[in-house]
Structures are given as C-alpha cells and as structure tokens.
Amino acid sequence: MIKRFFKRIFAKPGLSREPAGVQAPLNARDNAARPVSYHVNKPAIWGHKDHKIDKRLLSHNAIRVCEGLQDRGFKAFVVGGAVRDLSLGMRPKDFDVATDASPEQVRTTFRRARIIGRRFQIVHVMFGPETIEVSTFRALSNSGHDNTDEHGRVLRDNVFGKQDEDATRRDFTVNAMYYDPKTETVWDYHHGMEDIRKRVLRMIGDPATRYREDPVRMMRVVRFAAKLNFSIEPATRAPIAEMGDLISNVPAARLFDEMLKLLGSGSAMSCLVGLREAGLHRGLFPLLDAILDNNKGEAFLVEALRRTDERVRDEKPLSTGFLFACLMWHQVVARWETIQKRGEQRIPALFQAMDDVLVEQCEKTAIPRRITGDMRELWAFQPRFEKRAGKAPFRMVEQPKFRAALDFFELRAFVGEVDTDLAVWWREFYDADGKGKQELLDHMKSLPAGAGGSAASGNKKRKRKRKPNQAAVAQSGPESH
Predict the structure, then answer these.
(1) 1, 315, 355, 448: which has the fewest Cβ within 10 Å?
(2) Is 153 exposed, middle or buried (0-12, 13-18, 19+ CB in 10 A)?
(3) From start to end of 76-140, where are the E strands?
C-alpha cells in the first residue's frame, strides 16, 4: 500500500492509468486521419510447417519479453531482421520486439527497462549482458512537410499506430514479418516469405520516396544483398544511381554506425564492392576507387577484410580502430609520400598525413576520438618496427597497442609491403621470454652491416657533430690566425 501511495505521489506526467490490456490513445495530438502514400495489406499468417523456424534459435529473453507483454493483454512479436534470419535458418545477432503497448507501459512491465530515443522512443529491456529493444507500432508518415527536410528525409517520427501501418513503414518486404513465439506463427504483410524463398530484396512502397525519407536505406540494401547473398529487385536498385548524393545529408554519426554494421556483417569486402558499384562510396570513402585500383592497396584491403569476416564467422570480437586503420591505411601512405616529396622529414610527414586523412574522413563519417586515437597509434607504430637495436624493442612490446600494431605489420608483410623476415623476427621476439629476447637482439648485432635487411641497415647510429670547444677558441684569439 505504501509503495502504491508513493507511486501515485511521484508518478511522472503522462503515465498510463489504464489496466493491462486497455490502451490509451498513443497520439492524442494526432487523432486526425493521415493520408498515406502506400497500400496496406492484410497479413498472411504462416504456421510452423510453412516457415520452419527453429525456436531453439530464439533468444530466451526475447521470448520472455513477448510473453510478459502478452500476459498484460498486449500484442508482442519478434520482428524485423531477426525473423528474416530465423526463416533462413540463421541465429540472429540481436532481437527486436514490436508491440501495441506504449513505451511507458513497456517500461512498467519489466524491472530493468528504460526509455531512450528522440526521433522515435523505444525501450531497452535488459537481461544481464543482453538487451532486447522494444518499439511501439509506428503509424504511416504524416503528409505534412514539417517533419521532413528539403530533401524529404524524415526528421521527426514519434507517432504510434497499428500493426499493419508498422509493417508498411519498414524498409524491405523480408524485414516486415512478425513472429509470435507463443503460437509459432509468422504474420507477413508484404509477401516477405515469398521474397525470402526467391532470395530477393524488394522495397515496400515507392523506392525513390523511401530512399528520400531515409537515404541510409541505400546502404542497407547493399549490405543485406552482400550478407544474405540476395539479389536486389530492379525497381529497388534503379533509383540508387541518381539518389546516392542524398547520403551527404545524413548525420555523420549515423553513417559511422552504419559503416560498423557493414564492416561487421561477415561479408565486408562484398559490401564495399557493392557500395562502389552503386556509387555510394563517394559519400563515405571517396578514395576507395584509388585503393581498389592500386594492386597493393586492393590486396591489403581484401586480406584485411577477409580476416575480419573470418573473425565474425568465428564469433570473435572485432577492433573498430583496427578495421578503420586498415580501411584508410593507403590513403595515409599516399599522403605520407606526397608530404615527404615536399621535403618534410619522414616521421613528421607521417603524423601530418595521419592528421590530413582523419580530418577529411571525419567530415564524412564521424569516427569517435577514442577510435581515431587507436588508429593513430597503429599507424605510428609501423616505422618503429624498423628499429631493432638497444632497449627500443623492449619498450615497444610493453606498449598496450603493440599486439594490434604487430598484427597490422604482419598483414602488410603478407601482401608484400614490408619484409616478411622482419615480421617473423618481431613475432618471435614478442613470443620469447626475457632471455630469448636478448638472444635475438645479440644475434642481430653479430650480423654484418646490411645483412639484416632494411631494418638492420637502419640501426646504425648517426655520429653526432661535436660543437667546437669554445674555451680553446677563446684562448687562441685572433692572433693565432
């Protein structure tokens, strides 16, 4: 009773007072009928014998969220890419739930839940390390122009609606299916199951209009096609060539998030090639043409992304800094060489090249400072591998980023950018104990000049010019000359 009293006293304005299963209007300010531009279908409901989804591939916590909301009288479904992947026999990376409950009603249903988002409020329900994202069904777009920019991109979208409207608001037919874990049925509003069987990506509604609403959809269709090995329906592909410039209107931070999904898709190289073929790379990585047309640049990038895809398949963690360092390395190298030709010293030229490339790239995709810091460290390490004398190697291996920098150096050696023997020596030095490290350095000293490759030749100490003895010059005086 005391708990209910305090809830009544300190309740936030707008909290629903309706009992479970009775939902207040979600958008009191927008009760007028909204003209819509695309047709809404009634769902085809597929049973287990049709969709063949293995329930064991579902997250137990996603099922708990659906059951928790359904027990209170709300609709709740696993939705979107998770249903698509489950229909293909794949285990989804994460799970989203859609419901007719308002964000406040979802929040009060679960003990560890919080509302986030400005453009459209969603609820994060947390179960230890796993977070289930719960969104309320969205209404179709308002015909007013106050919610879009001059290019048609949707700026404000916090309008709730019905399930069929929510399905029509989604981008592709294969992403507009709803799975009910309790009845094990799939609600399919736009023939998504048929398109999954045909392995085709098809936009819901007019593709040009949908791309204008959210230009990131052009990147998503390329990513899904590469990841799922699907074809893109001709009408869905056609507008991309003319509308690719709209990518520049998307906030740089959102483009960075989309690039992370692309690079971590398990088909990173195919995604980059797809972006290039669609012409979308000009708004993200303008120098990708130069990299892929350069034999060494292409070989390095192909191998880096092959290893990345391998780690994704093995469910190993990815380093975002390492990924972007690989992606932009040959831009740094090209700028580095240009600056050196102007007469700048080698190491200062490298740091200037890093600054130039990062400033240019961050205008396109807002790479966070902590990640650019990691990238700088990896790049700055590279010329230091040429020094194998004195205490420098011992100091290097103690640096936190040494292991990642060595992986980067070995990648360069694999494609022939640097001496393979040098990469092997550093790996042996890193793996050796204290005595073994010293033996490797002693062996280097015993080699004749130049026998250790480019690295050995760079270990010679330069003779420092001595300053003239000022006292002796003063004693000699002008008479001695």
Answers:
(1) 1
(2) middle
(3) 76-79, 96-99, 113-116, 122-127, 130-136
Alpha-carbon distances of 327 from 257, 286, 300, 305, 369, rounded to whole Å: 15, 12, 9, 9, 17
Q: Measure the CA–CA gap between 405 and 147, rounded to whole angstroms.
A: 46
Q: Do residues 236 and 171 touch, judged by C-beta distance below 8 A?
A: no
Domains identified in the chain and CATH numbers: 1-198 (3.30.460.10)
CA separation for the pair 338, 349 (Å, rounded): 9
- The total of other beta-carbon atoms located within 10 Å of residue 144's CB is 9
Tokens coding 18: 């309706």
Contact between residue 231 and residue 240 where contact means Cβ atoms under 8 Å apart: no
Is residue 476 within 8 A of residue 404, CB to CB? The reply is no
How far apart (Å, rounded) are the C-alpha atoms in residues 177 and 83? 6
What percent of the chain is predicted at pLDDT more than 90? 59
Q: What is the pLDDT of residues 285-306, one digit of tens each?
A: 655 666 666 667 788 988 999 9
Whether 388 and 451 have beta carbons less than 8 Å apart is answered as no
Q: Which residue has the tokens 């106050």?
A: 146
Long-range CB contacts (within 8 A, 24+) of 216-221: 216/247, 216/250, 216/254, 216/255, 216/258, 217/171, 218/243, 218/244, 218/246, 218/247, 218/278, 218/280, 219/247, 219/258, 219/262, 219/275, 219/280, 220/171, 220/172, 220/258, 221/171, 221/172
Cβ–Cβ contacts within 10 Å for residue 292, how many? 18
Q: Which residue has the tokens 């000009």?
A: 282
With beta carbons less than 8 A apart as the criterion, state whether 304 and 292 touch.
no
- Nearest alpha carbon to residue 357 among 383, 339, 381, 384: 339
At residue 25, the pLDDT reads: 37
Which tokens hold the place of 387? Answer: 């020094």
Q: Backbone dihedral region of 21: left (phi > 0), alpha (psi from -120 to 50 degrees) or beta?
A: left
Judged against a pLDDT cut of 80, whether residue 177 lies above it is answered with yes
Averaged pLDDT, 402-412 = 96
d(CA 407, CA 413): 10
Residues 6 or more apart whose Cβ sits within 8 Å of residue 15: 104, 108
Listed residue (102, 98, 123, 121) closest to 112, CA to CA: 123
Torsion angle of alpha carbons 466, 471, 475, 481, nearest 10°? 30
- Is the pLDDT reported for residue 476 higher than 60? no
